[in-house]
């Protein structure tokens, strides 16, 4: 009588488990294909209607669109860097806080999600205006004589975007730090490493998965932001998403808007891959 080997049995059980998981995921995958993948493919097909690449040539060679894309990349990179600097200490504190402290911190972090981005952006208009709450408080405290220009410029756009996107950086880093055993840092300190070196050589490298996920998420969301730069920038800070909307709303030029969307998608995927490669390289170097 032929008996199957333990290895073959495990492989068969693994394949059955994969098929079961695929069966559970199939409805969601079908829904995602219908409501997301198909509309995206249909939009991208508009950019090459008639087999012509003239819309891509215009997007790639016209100085205006290249400049706006470059500005969008700079803004997204700046927002990502600011969010990372602000989010890591918060995530580290949350991962080391007690149960009550962590619950209160997460509640405060998630509270803005209960308000729409549009409402929060209009709130920043009230706060950052020439006679807004911030300038009035600074004048009352004697710190400034003239109102600071905090609206309709890059500063206002960065402030508004960082406020909206900061939780998207905190949560992945927090999740990664929860998986880091604090005893590893204590062991490093017990072997003579100062706390800052134990953090740089032990805790931080082990949290790079969360840093990578947070940076990729914030960068991708920043690159396609529309409401916040449109309102807080006052038309002086233009991002690629605003140009795409303008091509559809004012000129009804769907093919060129689709070409700009395709360029934005390709750049986003390239940056996403670059962030992943840099992070993997950092983890290997730390190891």
Automatic annotation (TrEMBL):
<feature type="transmembrane region" description="Helical">
    <location>
        <begin position="75"/>
        <end position="94"/>
    </location>
</feature>
<comment type="similarity">
    <text>Belongs to the binding-protein-dependent transport system permease family. CysTW subfamily.</text>
</comment>
<feature type="domain" description="ABC transmembrane type-1">
    <location>
        <begin position="69"/>
        <end position="275"/>
    </location>
</feature>
<feature type="transmembrane region" description="Helical">
    <location>
        <begin position="226"/>
        <end position="244"/>
    </location>
</feature>
<dbReference type="InterPro" id="IPR000515">
    <property type="entry name" value="MetI-like"/>
</dbReference>
<keyword id="KW-0472">Membrane</keyword>
<dbReference type="InterPro" id="IPR035906">
    <property type="entry name" value="MetI-like_sf"/>
</dbReference>
<keyword id="KW-0813">Transport</keyword>
<feature type="transmembrane region" description="Helical">
    <location>
        <begin position="256"/>
        <end position="275"/>
    </location>
</feature>
<keyword id="KW-1003">Cell membrane</keyword>
<protein>
    <submittedName>
        <fullName>ABC transporter permease</fullName>
    </submittedName>
</protein>
<feature type="transmembrane region" description="Helical">
    <location>
        <begin position="150"/>
        <end position="177"/>
    </location>
</feature>
<keyword id="KW-0812">Transmembrane</keyword>
<feature type="transmembrane region" description="Helical">
    <location>
        <begin position="106"/>
        <end position="130"/>
    </location>
</feature>
<dbReference type="Pfam" id="PF00528">
    <property type="entry name" value="BPD_transp_1"/>
</dbReference>
<keyword id="KW-1133">Transmembrane helix</keyword>
